[in-house]
């Protein structure tokens, strides 16, 4: 095939795919970068598609609806290829690219999100999986990663939805089986990440900062201020506000400073490479073909906020954002114990040489992760529970917008806040110190 004609045909297909859906998703579709071209995928197709001959059609479109992903633009790449026997084959990829907005270019780049996630997929995941293979256990943490010959910020992954992996419904949150499956995989990840430090030394300093990043203080201030203001508005009308409202008001006076001053980690304690954004949309479940709703495996995705610190960060973030209403408080200790047992089993399996953490110590770590706990409860949990709407954009998420105000007034969000706010008060998460 003439490469010039191939380029013209594929560019037209991308544009026609965009224009055909513009009426439904004008904001999202306009985010597809112009640099995404068919010829960039030639080498990958040659390596991964047997008998590959040439590209016939090339399409790019949004992978997720509004409110499903904020840190990056998530795209599906669908390529119809011609094989040597003149039959066709469709190859799919999942592509993440950076937002081209003032917000991202002035502040969010400081999170090193693509540098982190690329290293996680290309280095850490293969290392961790190899650790388990060495002891006779097959563990997979996520999809395969591919490289494109470009300098732009991106991440190209296999489309695991073709193997049956999919997200759970975030508005419904996770039931006990899904929670335990996620926590088991998290325990395996944390254990391998701790053992890797013993074998290969410390992680790069970029992993000392997560989503609550002092370098991005203006963004954290905007998000935290908007979040706690909206929580206060909801709490004014909750029947149990007498328990915690005064403490919540005191916390609101310096919430950003509270967050930034409570993210330091103790290098002498047990630390792991936290996923950093461990909520239900960042895990994909695969189910049994014969037994309805029986989970076979789970992959973790979106490692952009990975952070080396106490495992308490990931655990409290997950329990606030992703667990069903009836389990979130009632089964808190049970879920922590479940994670702990699997953490210890895997640390022993991988021959971790240092002192093993205790269950009491883990509970202490969780309570000390109050910055990530309050941030998750006030900013991430409402977003996770909210109905999908076109106004669910990155800019609206991080500002005191009308969209945000409406999110907190949804009945599902109110129910979860009414449950967790007194629990947070009694546990000390609202302490200003």
Structure in words:
There is one protein chain. The protein has a five-stranded antiparallel sheet. Strands 6-9 form a two-stranded antiparallel ribbon. The protein has a two-stranded antiparallel sheet with strand order 7-8. The radius of gyration is 22 Å and the shape is globular. 48% of the residues lie in helices and 13% in strands. The chain is α+β, with helices and mostly antiparallel strands. It has 17 helices and nine strands. The N terminus is likely disordered.
What does the radius of gyration come to?
22 Å
Indicate the overall shape: globular
State which percent range the strand residues make up. 5-15%
Query: Tell me about the biggest sheet?
Result: 5 strands, antiparallel
Alpha-carbon distance between the termini? 67 Å
């Amino acid at each position: 095939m003439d490469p010039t004609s191939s380029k013209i045909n594929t560019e037209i297909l991308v544009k026609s795919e965009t224009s055909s859906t513009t009426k439904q998703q004008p904001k999202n579709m306009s985010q597809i970068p112009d640099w995404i071209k068919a010829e960039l995928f030639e080498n990958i197709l040659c390596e991964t598609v047997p008998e590959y001959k040439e590209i016939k059609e090339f399409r790019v479109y949004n992978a997720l609806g509004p409110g499903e992903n904020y840190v990056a633009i998530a795209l599906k790449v669908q390529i119809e290829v011609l094989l040597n026997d003149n039959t066709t084959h469709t190859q799919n990829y999942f592509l993440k690219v950076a937002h081209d907005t003032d917000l991202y270019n002035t502040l969010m780049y400081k999170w090193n999100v693509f540098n982190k996630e690329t290293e996680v997929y290309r280095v850490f995941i293969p290392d961790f999986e190899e650790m388990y293979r060495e002891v006779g256990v097959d563990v997979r943490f996520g999809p395969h990663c591919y490289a494109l010959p470009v300098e732009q910020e991106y991440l190209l992954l296999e489309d695991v939805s073709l193997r049956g992996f999919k997200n759970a419904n975030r508005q419904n949150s996770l039931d006990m089986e899904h929670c335990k499956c996620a926590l088991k995989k998290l325990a395996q990840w944390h254990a391998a990440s701790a053992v890797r430090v013993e074998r290969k030394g410390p992680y790069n300093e970029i992993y000392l900062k997560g989503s609550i990043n002092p370098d991005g203080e203006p963004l954290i201030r905007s998000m935290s201020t908007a979040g706690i203001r909206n929580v206060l508005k909801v709490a004014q009308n909750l029947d149990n506000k007498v328990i915690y409202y005064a403490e919540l008001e005191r916390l609101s006076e310096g919430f950003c400073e509270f967050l930034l001053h409570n993210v330091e980690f103790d290098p002498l304690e047990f630390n792991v490479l936290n996923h950093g954004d461990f909520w239900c949309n960042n895990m994909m479940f695969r189910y049994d073909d014969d037994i309805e709703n029986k989970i076979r495996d789970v992959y973790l995705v979106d490692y952009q906020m990975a952070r080396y610190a106490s495992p308490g960060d990931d655990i409290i973030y997950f329990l606030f954002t992703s667990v069903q209403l009836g389990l979130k408080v009632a089964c808190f200790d049970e879920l922590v114990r479940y994670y702990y047992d699997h953490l210890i089993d895997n640390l022993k399996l991988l021959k971790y040489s240092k002192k093993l953490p205790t269950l009491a110590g883990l509970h202490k770590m969780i309570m000390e992760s109050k910055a990530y706990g309050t941030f998750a409860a006030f900013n991430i949990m409402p977003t996770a529970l909210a109905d999908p709407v076109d106004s669910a954009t990155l800019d609206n998420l991080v500002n005191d917008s009308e969209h945000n105000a409406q999110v907190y007034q949804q009945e599902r969000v109110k129910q979860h806040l009414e449950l967790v706010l007194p629990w947070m008060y009694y546990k000390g998460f609202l302490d200003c110190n």
